[in-house]
Structures are given as structure tokens and as C-alpha cells.
Amino acid sequence: MNKAQFEALLEQVESSGAKLVAVSKSVDTHDVKGLAGFGQLDFGENRVQELERKIEGLAGISADYRRLRWHFIGRLQSNKINALLALHPALWQSCESVDAALSVEKRLSYELPCLVQINSANESSKQGASLNEAVDIYHEICERCKLLKPVGVMSIGANNSDESVIAKSFEDTYKVFESLQKHGAKICSMGMSDDWRIALKCGSNMLRLGRILW
Ligand SMILES: *Cc1c(COP(=O)(O)O)cnc(C)c1O
Q: Mean pLDDT for the chain?
């Protein structure tokens, strides 16, 4: 995407009241640099090692890239927790259970916001709490963690060619988000390259876009 295309997309996202996280997992450090040059600050990665590689690569180019905010959006293996925390991510979007939260809390020495990931279409290929469990998990993390702070929910739309099925998965996630707003939930992270327009209609205020940007 060139600068004009990026700015046009960003305008659509921001005029809907949403924030854009650029998912850089399938591109190189060079491409992150390009988008950062257009003013993009929030980036997402789903693997700790790749996140580390990109942060180090960018630090080698300029200390200026320290202002980028990195979102962790993937499965977090317990042997990678220390490595992730050393990188000071801005937001851990893929917290799916109280156990995972407690393992991270135990190793934290600073406040880290997180989102409870919801597997809203109940697909076995995806991680995430079920719609029924999500509210309780959110509350239990609030009660049992001092440094890990739940600030919302994240979900990947249903893997389906039927738009109404995708919309249903977003609407269900949004309902959970709504019920948690009085408990401090501010972020409803939904929408990727193929379904971001549907996600915006369903109330998303954070899009995670990868392929469409590059
Ligand atoms: C890869 C990924 C994205 C971005 O997906 P695209 O289809 O490339 O936009 C968003 N969220 C998560 C959790 C991902 O793993």
C-alpha cells in the first residue's frame, strides 16, 4: 500500500471510531519501517521470537522506533512468557484463560493491559474462551491479578463464507464487551483483512489488519 492508499484506509477506520493495529507477522522489518513512516504506531505479532527479531532489527536502525507499540496477538507458550515480557508489549490481546493470566502475572514487574480472547464461533482450530466463560474469566483476572489488567475482549471472526455467520460471531463478542464496559472494558478488538467492514458495523473499535496493508 502506498501512503495515499494507507491514509484512505485509515480515514475509514478512524471515522468509525476504531484504531488500527498493523499485523506485521508475514512481512519484514523493512515493511514495518515503511508503515511507521506513514505514521502508524501500533503493530501486532503472533510469535514472540519474531516480535523480538523485529524490535531488535528496528532498534538497530534508529532509537526512534522505540515509540512503536507492539501488540501480542498469538498463542503464548509458557516457555516464551519471560521473553515476551522483556519486550514490554503494549497490549496482550490473546489471553484466553485464568491459568494463562496467572502465569503471566507471576512474572510481571510492570502493569500490562490484556484482552480476553473469545472463540465466539466455537471453532476447534482457534484458541480463546467460550462466549459463556468469557465474562467470568475477565472478572477472575481482575480479582486475582495486580499487574495484569483486563481492558476488553478480542475475537477472530467466524471462518465462514456467509457474512451473516461472521456478523453473528462479532455481534456475540460485542454483547460480551458491552456487559463488561461497566467493569472497565474499553477495547473490542475484532476484524481482519477479509471481514473488517463487518466488524466495524458490529461495534469493533480495534481492527487487526495484516495482508490488506502490504
Ligand atoms: C494474522 C492475524 C491477523 C491479521 O490477519 P489478516 O488476515 O492478514 O488481516 C489478525 N489477528 C490475528 C490474531 C492474526 O493472527
A: 97
For residue 5, the model assigns a pLDDT of 97
CA-wise closest residue to 116 among 106, 130, 104: 130
Confidence at residue 89, expressed as pLDDT on a 0 to 100 scale: 98
Q: Using a 6 Å cutoff on CB, does residue 193 contact ligand 1?
A: yes
Domain ranges of the chain: 3-9+17-213
Which residues 6+ apart lie within 8 Å of 59 measured at CB?
Answer: 65, 66
pTM above 0.85, yes or no: yes
Q: Which atom of ligand 1 is nearest to the CA of 21?
A: 10
pLDDT, tens only, 159-213: 999 999 999 999 999 999 999 999 999 999 999 999 999 999 999 999 999 999 9
Any ligand 1 atom below 6 A from CB of 71 = no
Long-range pairs, 27-36, Cβ under 8 A, ≥24: 27/214, 29/53, 29/54, 29/57, 29/58, 29/61, 31/214, 32/58, 32/68, 33/58, 33/61, 33/65, 35/6, 35/213, 36/65, 36/68
3-state DSSP assignment of residue 68: coil
**What CATH class has 3-9+17-213?**
alpha beta
- Ligand 1 within 6 A of CB of 208: yes
Give residue 143's Cα distance to chain centre. 22
